[in-house]
Amino acid sequence: MAHIFVVEDNQPTRDAVSGYLQLADHQVSVFANLAGVREELESRVPDLLILDVMLPDGDGFIFAKELLARVKVPLIFMSARESESDRITGFELGADDYIVKPFSPKELVLRVAAVLKRTSIPAAPSSSRRWLLDSHEL
To answer: What is the CA radius of gyration of the chain?
Structure first.
């Protein structure tokens, strides 16, 4: 089981992402802004960070650049910013993946599993993912 930080200002999206990740047997900590996640990062580093780009108290790209300069943490950007230049910026900053809203929760959970597999954090066994078959787009 991986511990995943989700930084997303939209509560319905934050709750849905958290719920789907918990169904996939992950421990999830959620944050509505960068201030909250900055504070938590002082005491622990997650196994994976899912980060929105546009947050009320700052830019996720700038935050990621600062964070990844200090600590190695797998990162998935989750954003409504869908341009090719935004996606390229995310990858150039060191993201392991970039998912554009709206997205399928099933796809997000599978992308999380792929990143965790590449970074040696065990994902939930496939048998526990049966609930993914009936997922809807967020």
So the answer is: 14
- What confidence score (pLDDT) does residue 137 get? 55
Which parts of the chain have pLDDT scores under 70? Answer: 121-138
pLDDT of residue 121: 53
Q: Tell whether the torsion through CA atoms of 81, 87, 92 and 98 is positive or negative.
A: positive
- Which has the closest alpha carbon to 138: 51, 2, 15, 47? 15
- Measured between alpha carbons, how far is 126 from 137 in angstroms, rounded to an integer? 20
Q: Does the bond joining 102 to the residue before it have cis omega, within 30 degrees of 0? A: yes
The phi and psi torsions of 121 (rounded to 5 degrees) equal -100, 120
Residue 84 has phi, psi (to 5 degrees) of -60, -40
Nearest to 8 by CA among 28, 41, 31, 29: 31
pLDDT, tens digit (0-9, with 9 covering 90-100), for 46-80: 999 999 999 999 999 999 999 999 999 999 999 99
Q: At what angle do helices 60-70 and 34-41 cross, to 10 degrees?
A: 10
Look up tokens 């998912």; give the residue: 99
